[in-house]
Amino acid sequence: MRLVILPNFPALEGLSISSCNLLEDLPTFPALKELTIEECGRLVALPAFPALKELDINSCEGLKVLQSYPALKKLIIWSCKGLENLPTFLALKELSINYSDRVDLPTFPALKKLEINSCEGRMVLPNFPALEELKIYSCKGLEVLPRLLALCELALTFCDDNILKSLPNFISLSKSSSSTTTEISRGTLSTMLQYLRISDFPILEALPLKDFTSLKKLQIWNCPKLVSFSEELLPTTLKHLAIRECPIKHLPKGLQNLLSLETLEIDQCHSLESFPEDGLPTSIRRLQWLKLWLHCQEALEHIDGGLAMVRFSWSKGPALVGTITVQTLAMDETVQKM
After folding, report:
1. H or E stretch including 38?
2. pLDDT tens, position by position, 116-161
3. Is residue 333's pLDDT more than 50?
4. Phi and psi of 304, rounded to 5°?
5. What does each C-alpha distance from 65 to 4, 39, 46, 60, 95 come to in angstroms?
6. Is residue 195 part of a domain?
7. How many domains does the chain have?
8. Does residue 200 lie in a domain region?
């Protein structure tokens, strides 16, 4: 059966097609606003849809051509390995590309949110003047980030190590197994960046952050060579700080200056030896959540005024003692309260 023989429904606004292996083309639906196509292996091209606002394409490996849809605002692509080029969608605001070998992207002037997941081929991102949120997962072919002056949120996971060279002020970055370091150029990202997540970078050794003067949320996960932060202070705008599975020995300096800090999470940092000598913020009542998830024996003693004394001891190494004030204290199951 060929769907092309169906009438041209002039008022049709939503259409979903799944597992139609004989489908090769579609008629033009002038009022269509939302289209989902899944597992249509023979579909080679899509016609013009002048009113289309949302397009979701999944597992259409024969698809090679998309039209330039003037009203399109959201585009999701999954496993369309034959699709190598996209036209310029002037109204596009959200784009998600997943499991594609190579897709050349033009400049989308209105794009605000971009997610790229598991794209193995070489990829070059143009300058997106309005881009506010960028998430990249497991894309070894993407080595450089363009200038993204409107960017507010950035998440990098399982990417090529060279991509860190695009970030401002990243120093002490090992080159493969070599012990040599390189200094990273500045200015790729906007100082307006508010959210930064760096995950699964095996060579990241240091993390200077002072230029991110608007940073509110910082997450660092599974960076096995990150043993310390730079001597520079953290941005005072920081509200949420999470460090997971990193061999840091000390928490970042200047925590007492983070008067806006609301969430502090330290998770599976087994090399942690001490709190900063300067202590935690003086406005500590704004610290809503301190999570300490360490494979150690802990004793928690409540003290008047909402203070809590947390004592850490390991089978190896010295004991760690700190005094903190929290509203809510989240601990691992191994915590022993006294």
Report:
1. strand 34-38
2. 998 877 788 888 999 999 998 888 788 778 878 788 888 888 776 6
3. no
4. -55, 150
5. 17, 16, 7, 11, 17
6. no
7. 2
8. no
- The two tokens of residue 139 are 């894309």
Residue with the two structure tokens 């899944």: 38
As a whole number of Å, the CA-based R_g of the chain is 25
CB 235 within 8 A of CB 213: yes
Buried b / exposed e across 167-199, counting CB within 10 Å, b at 16+?
bbbbebbbeeeeeeeeebeeebbbeebbbbbbb
CA angle, residues 292, 260, 308, in degrees to nearest 5: 40
Q: What is the pLDDT of residues 49-73, one digit of tens each?
A: 999 999 999 999 999 989 999 999 9
Phi, psi of 18 (to 5 degrees): -135, 135
Which DSSP category does 3 fall into?
Answer: G
Cβ neighbors of 237 (< 8 A, separation 6 or more) are 213, 214, 215, 216, 260
The residue whose two tokens read 């040599």 is: 180
Cβ pair 251, 233 in contact under 8 A: no
Cα separation, 280 vs 273, whole angstroms: 16
Does 164 reside within a domain? no
Of 78, 111, 144, the residue at which a domain comes to its end is 111
In a domain, 44, yes or no: yes
Listed in sequence order, the residues at least 6 apart from 277 whose beta carbon sits closer than 8 Å to its beta carbon are none
| Secondary structure letter of residue 107 according to DSSP | -
Indicate the residue among 111, 138, 165 that finishes a domain: 111
Cα within 13 Å of Cα(332), Cβ side: 15
- Are residues 323 and 337 in contact, defined by beta-carbon separation less than 8 angstroms? no
Burial profile 56-70: b = 16 or more Cβ within 10 angstroms, e = fewer = bbbbbbbbeebbebe
**Which residue range is the domain that position 67 belongs to?**
1-111
| 8 A C-beta contact, residue 294 and residue 314 | no
How many residues are present in the chain?
A: 338
